[in-house]
């Protein structure tokens, strides 16, 4: 395991780091107020060090990292905020890794600012500061995900079913070969074809330049946005349908995931059907589909870069 000095910045420097990470202003005072409790408690300091060392151990490695240490859920605000302190303490090391790879400052900054976006998502859904899925941000802070314009790209490898689908299409690739996994962050505007084209162009150049030892010939995506049933409700020239059209289907899953689009579109995956608004075409599509007794599924697709 890589050993490194694990420290939280002093209050003034902590505030600046949180601003750099796009942490919502309404969450900053709480994080500053709790800092002293984290640094003064020997148990919490050990948890902090464990979390940072876990990330440093797998810095830059595809598929690395384990679960971040957690405080008991009944610990209140410290438990909600604790992962944020782990990421802040790891910040100097991921920035150093980015510099080693000559990652441009703006790409580094925009990538790590996803921490703030996910805190916004937590507040939108639950009304408090925190992170819904702390482990997801570990991908950013280990150097696996990069924000390149409208889309995010994760250094990954083809899974079994997707790899076999790619091979069956005639490409000299298969399970375990390199692939860029595409993610579509919310709160960043529409996924227009032009914006996606720009992101893909940047991705081709970025990974060839900064990770030349990894050859990426295909992109993959696993998302509710690839459920082809959406095309029943949306215009053919809608951004979502045109995004779907980029992909070839890798495989289909039969397990319904109705809560996923409800959570992304309405902010609360547990909203009852009769409470789902019908303000936009997409909102009407998600709700009316479920009210008709049908289900939503995640789609799994790929295309050649």
Description:
With 305 residues, this protein is α+β, with helices and mostly antiparallel strands. The protein has helices at residues 11-20, 25-40, 42-57, 77-100, 105-112, 114-126, 134-141, 160-168, 193-210, 239-244, 259-266, 281-291; strands spanning 145-148, 151-157, 178-183, 218-223, 248-252, 299-304. A 6-stranded mixed beta sheet has the order 1-2-3-4-6-5. The longest helix is centred in the first third of the chain and has 24 residues, at 77-100. The chain starts with 10 loop residues before the first helix and ends with a strand. The mean pLDDT is 93.
Short structural summary:
This protein has 305 residues and is an alpha+beta fold. Helices cover 48% and strands 11% of the residues.
Which properties best describe this structure?
alpha+beta; six-stranded mixed β-sheet; 305 residues; globular; 6 strands
Strand content: 5-15%
Head-to-tail CA distance between termini: 35 Å
Number of strands: 6
Which residues sit in consecutive blocks of at least 5 with pLDDT less than 50? none
Sequence of secondary-structure elements:
HHHHHHHEEHEHEHEHHE
Sequence of strands across the biggest β-sheet: 1-2-3-4-6-5
**Alpha-beta classification:** alpha+beta
Q: Please, how many helices?
A: 12
Helix coverage percent:
40-55%
Mean pLDDT: 93
Shape: globular
Largest sheet: 6 strands, mixed
Spatial extent as radius of gyration: 20 Å
